[in-house]
Write a structure and sequence with these properties.
Elements lengths: L28 H4 L11 H10 L14 E4 L16 E5 L7 H5 L10 E4 L3 E8 L9 E7 L11 E5 L10 E8 L2 E7 L7 E11 L2 E4 L8 E4 L22 E3 L18 H9 L5 E4 L1 H15 L3 E11 L7 E5 L13 E13 L10 E5 L16 E2 H5 L9 H9 L2 E6 L5 E7 L5 E6 L6 E3 L1 H4 L6 H11 L16 E6 L11 E9 L5 E12 L5 E14 L4 E8 L1 H4 L8 E10 L5 E9 L6 E5 L8 E8 L6 E10 L3 E11 L4 E8 L5 E10 L6 E9 L8
Parallel strand pairs: 3-11, 12-13, 15-19
Antiparallel strand pairs: 1-10, 2-4, 4-8, 5-6, 5-9, 7-8, 9-10, 9-11, 14-16, 14-21, 16-17, 17-18, 19-20, 21-22, 23-24, 24-27, 25-26, 25-28, 28-29, 30-31, 31-34, 32-33, 32-35, 35-36
Length: 705
């Protein structure tokens, strides 16, 4: 049975980028000449940087690898001189821009004739051999190498075997078609494959010897990140101070030694100049130019990226997470102390990625800023900082979250110098930083306001809590009045095994007042749908309530989320997060907690029918009850068990609202002992439905009847 092509088409609109040109034109004759020994390192900075961040843009023209053939003595030809050693005559990577490889991988708009694919997806290729391939006596595998020193342990040297069945998310290949001396392979790559340009050779082996194909640079394979499947992302440098990056910044107003930042109209010209000048940073750039180049390079590599503009953007220089203005005794500015600033606007980038290094809920859009403003761990870079962490003032989460928070939501605080040289806070402005944070709308040239992703509404209690939470970790934590007591606690709990799919979700919010005085608490709650990677998908509901807690009282609040509120918003794992925050009126104590929970899906019930004996047919009954008050459409059951039955897919059809169904499957056990039979149900309306049954299989009896 032919292996199935795994398509990522239609999974998401994220990452559908406009036509991007790969490469920088044809090499000149001088570039093709062998460099002299004393000029060997000239241009390495540019080429190494480009190969590191985008190997497609700056291919390395390596010498062709000679074909190696190893023969067993006395073998190699049949009687009459016919060749029996299996050799590769040609390789066709099916790299046409209109072909399936390029279109299915969303790389058909790249202006390159190379095979450009995305990791985590399959691609096809033809191999023409010197004779028909015989799977019973011939062996064949693909050999891929990337980087200057390819190592198997680091994933830069990959040996891809032929397998009988593709399993997915690993390096593997299967023969899907054979035509005389030609074989067509379907090749899978894992979602964790190293990004880069791979040299491809094909190696064959049989009893008569082995052979390796000649390396042809035209058959190199370029593997990019894949926005259509889960993966991991990396890091690059665009500014020049630390890593010979693409651009040199200049805010002096004198651009006589280069190009004014306002002249640039796109990134291609900048990248071409960087390449042409052998890695010399291009003069000059400012924030919008840095951000534009980052957008181009990261989208080229396959990382979803957008350019973000923040109007009235603060620049915090002392990690106070506030914008500070210092005045003398006469209320005159002390200029040498006033190093914080608020820019008219500042431009950076958001990149989409999972953040498994952070607590759940912090995946998704991450702020990265290539403009060299402040160093981060000794390097001029900023981010990635989770927008969720910025929004809630969780500035202790990496990377550079505090700096980004100050850019969008810091207060402007005025300090007056005292006679003894100390300073006293005299005034603060709370709504002047982070206005109309914007990006380009998808599919149009309209402005899309994304301020709500960076912070709560200005002046809201949630926004004030975020600011004060953030500043408590800053260098001027005392700029905000500390609570006079910490005597109220907040906790979220649930009873039993938790809420069930199709039912209302009921939790309990517990407030405990350990003081001898009454406390008034203003509580804010927000429940959100989460991806299983911790990425926020959508807000389902928000609530605000005021609670009076008597002295030494423990008050339990019942919190419920109705089915109708979440039924059309859940993701595969039915994961939700309840965020509760608040303030104690009498003491200004801040309360905050997040509680993740999952709606339980029903189990499949598997019941063996009859005795299980090796070699004898038996049956199992699989039953299921639809928990939802709606029809489940196009239900599919999957059943398998090692030693019991191979994987089986059953297209069941629809299951009515709250209906119970059962089906019977027959199989012949092949192994004795205790075996597990696993079943799952899948449809659009409900996911993650499983069942398992232990079945004890007896040995086949040899006794005569």
């Amino acid at each position: 049975m032919p292996a199935e092509r795994r398509s990522a088409r239609g999974r998401s609109a994220v990452g559908r980028f406009p036509s991007v040109t790969f490469g920088f034109g044809e090499d000149t004759e001088e570039e093709k000449e062998e460099p002299k020994e004393n000029n060997v390192k000239k241009g390495n900075a540019c080429k190494e940087w480009l190969r590191k961040v985008c190997p497609c843009c700056c291919p390395k023209h390596d010498d062709v690898i000679d074909t190696e053939v190893t023969l067993v003595d006395g073998l190699g030809k049949e009687d009459g001189g016919n060749e029996v050693l299996l050799k590769v005559k040609s390789i066709d990577l099916l790299k046409s821009k209109s072909g399936a490889n390029r279109t299915e991988h969303h790389t058909h708009l790249y202006q390159s004739d190379n095979l450009i694919i995305r990791r985590g997806q399959s691609f096809e290729m033809w191999i023409t051999l010197s004779r028909p391939f015989n799977p019973s006596s011939d062996e064949l595998h693909l050999d891929l190498k990337t980087g200057p020193l390819a190592v198997v342990a680091k994933g830069t040297h990959v040996i891809i075997p032929l397998v009988a069945k593709l399993e997915g998310d690993r390096w593997e290949a299967a023969v899907v078609k054979q035509e005389v001396k030609k074989i067509k392979l379907l090749v899978n790559s894992p979602t964790t494959a190293v990004i880069g340009r791979y040299q491809l050779t094909v190696e064959t082996n049989n009893q008569n010897g082995s052979a390796s194909s000649t390396h042809d640079p035209a058959n190199d394979i370029y593997i990019l990140f894949n926005p259509w499947c889960q993966g991991k992302y990396g890091h690059l440098m665009v500014n020049s101070p630390d890593d010979q990056g693409v651009l040199e910044g200049n805010w002096s107003g004198d651009y006589s030694n280069g190009t004014s930042p306002t002249v640039w109209s796109g990134s291609v010209e900048i990248l071409e100049e960087y390449h042409k000048k052998n890695g010399t940073p291009v003069k000059y750039g400012q924030c919008w130019v840095f951000a534009g180049v980052v957008t181009t390079v990261l989208r080229c590599l396959g990382i979803p990226t957008r350019t973000v503009t923040n109007f009235s953007s603060a620049h915090d220089t002392d990690v106070s997470l506030t914008t500070d203005v210092y005045l003398d005794e006469n209320l005159e500015p002390i200029e040498y102390l006033n190093v914080d600033s608020i820019w008219n606007f500042h431009v950076w980038n958001d990149c989409w990625m999972a953040r498994k290094d952070l607590p759940p809920g912090n995946g998704g859009w991450q702020a990265v800023d290539a403009t060299p403003q402040e160093t981060s761990q000794g390097t001029y870079c900023c981010g990635p900082a989770s927008l969720a962490a910025v929004r809630y003032g969780q500035v202790y989460l990496k990377h550079d979250t505090g700096f980004v928070f100050a850019e969008v939501n810091s207060d402007k605080i005025y300090w007056q110098k005292n006679a003894d040289g100390t300073f006293t806070q005299i005034y603060s402005e709370k709504k002047i930083v982070g206005i109309s944070i914007s990006t380009k709308a998808v599919g149009s040239n309209e402005r899309s306001d994304i301020t709500h992703l960076y912070k709560h509404p200005e002046g809201s209690n949630e926004e004030r809590i975020a600011v004060e939470t953030a500043c408590s970790f800053g260098s001027k934590a005392k700029a905000y009045s500390s609570p006079t007591a910490q005597d109220v606690s907040l906790e979220v709990t649930l009873d039993g095994d938790g809420p069930k799919m199709g039912k209302d979700a009921e939790l309990m919010i517990k407030l405990k007042n350990s003081s001898s005085q009454q406390r008034s608490v203003s509580l804010h709650s927000q429940v959100s749908v989460m991806y299983y990677t911790g990425v926020h998908k959508a807000t389902v509901r928000t609530d605000t309530t005021d609670i009076e807690v008597l002295p030494n009282e423990e008050k339990i609040l019942e919190w419920a989320l109705e089915y109708k509120d979440y039924k059309d918003k859940l993701m595969d794992q039915a994961a939700l997060m309840l965020t509760v925050s608040g303030r104690v009126k009498e003491t200004q104590q801040i309360l905050a907690t997040q509680f993740s929970f999952r709606l339980r899906t029903p189990d499949l019930i598997i019941k063996p029918l009859g005795k299980a004996v090796v070699g004898k047919k038996m049956s199992v009954e699989i039953s299921f009850t639809n928990p939802l008050p709606q029809v489940l459409k196009a239900v599919i059951f999957h059943v398998e068990g090692l030693g019991l039955m191979t994987a089986r897919k059953i297209n069941y059809g629809d299951i009515g609202s709250h209906a119970s169904v059962s089906l019977t499957e027959q199989f012949i056990p092949t192994l004795s002992g205790t075996r597990k039979l696993l079943a799952s149900l899948d449809c659009k309306q409900v996911r993650q439905v499983h069942g398992v049954s232990d079945i004890t299989v007896e040995e086949k009896s040899n006794a005569p009847l």
